[in-house]
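Worked Example 4.2. Consider the chain below.
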Amino acid sequence: MRNLCLTLFTLALLCIVTDSSLLAQAEQSWNLFKDANFKDVYLEEYGAYASLLEDDPEIVALNNRVITIKGYHIPVMEEDMIVLSKFPNANCFFCGGAGLETILEVRLNQPPKKRFEMDEVLTFTGRLLINTEDWNLVSFILEDAELIAR
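Applying the procedure from the previous section yields the following structure tokens:
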């Protein structure tokens, strides 16, 4: 009985340490993008400018890195992805004037069991893709993302 209690206590402690380290990593992940620079490119077919992530070696080196990130769900009109923001909706890139380095497209490896609410705090882990070429996509994409916490 004593061994069972000791084993259960050890497992509980391991879960707490693992969970808190994931959350610390998640909060740190937005800092990966803080030095990102963007350039305006002219889209002749639209007669307008769009912003693209500059091809910075430090940022591009993050490509395919597995990260865990925590942020706010920002609703978009897409079924196969969601947008995660460093800030709540009122302060996000789309509504509040924050920079492109504060949003991330999340491509889930499986659909969520229930719908995400606006500004719901979510934590995901997945493989980071860096986009410096396609203005139709955001600059930071989390591929094969798994929901860790809601």
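The first strand starts at residue 38 and ends at 43. The CA atoms of residues 26 and 125 lie 8 Å apart. Compare this with Example 4.1 before moving on.
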